[in-house]
Amino acid sequence: MRLEQLEYFLASAEHGSFSAAAASLLMAQPSMSEQIRRLEAELGVPLFIRAGKGVELTDAGRLFLPHAERVLAEAQEALESVREVRTLVSGTVAFGFFGGAHHSLLTGLIARFRAKYPDVRVRAIGQNSAEVADAVREAQLEAGLVILPIEDRGLEVRPVLSEELFYMTADPERARVPMTIERLAEAPLILYDARWAAQDPTRVQLSERGQVAGVRVEPLIEVEYMTAAFDLAARGLGDTVGLPSMLRARKLHQVAFDPPLFETYAFITRRNALLSPSTRAFMELAEKALG
């Protein structure tokens, strides 16, 4: 049974004539009649009886009619839903971001995307990178922008940008020379991402450096957000690690790490997953914003 056969059946039932139905669909009447015959053969019952110059539905035809209408309507809905997403007429972007994205990237990106695609809904989840990776892996999100390193099991990872991280302090004396991991282990540290401490990408890098050097890096104070760590450091309650672009008006001295420490951003998707056009368009704008 094919969808066009259902269309021919419904047209014949509506017009009461194979020839009139064929004319309405701009096709030859013999072709129409042949497709109806094949449909009846497949069903094993006649759907029409000849009545004068026209046709009428049999009992089986009347029973079959609402089902045929429903199947064609659902097929049309399916086609429309795909067309809308494909052409970015509607749909939803489900995208994850590393926790600090809302400070520097997220608001402007969503504003630009909505201006370009006003009928596409946006669901942007700002979490720790490890949590975003889990959500993408489990298909709760289509894609995400994270900070490396992450657990990449089942994921495609595409790095797009690196920014250098600096040691930041209110005490100019502690910012005179590049910061080594040995000196960092003795510093009064304030670190962010308290809830995801063991999986926070920056802490993972510091921990790996500490293991190689035979020292342990442990914070004196832990908070959830980088901006809170900056505020506490500006009050002289300790020192922190962060990006100069996030400092704004906070009066902190900064010094590079030795060797330099970088924050690397990457797009992640499920391995071999087919992204929706909306999400692909959102990622393209995000990459331009990062550049």
Automatic annotation (TrEMBL):
Keywords: DNA-binding, Transcription, Transcription regulation
Database matches in InterPro entries: HTH-type_LysR_regulators, LysR_HTH_N, LysR_subst-bd, WH-like_DNA-bd_sf, WH_DNA-bd_sf
GO terms under cellular component: cytosol
Pfam assignment, any one: LysR_substrate
Source superkingdom: Bacteria
Domain HTH lysR-type: 1-58
Family indicated by similarity: Belongs to the LysR transcriptional regulatory family.
Name of the protein in question: LysR substrate-binding domain-containing protein
Annotated source species: Solirubrobacter phytolaccae
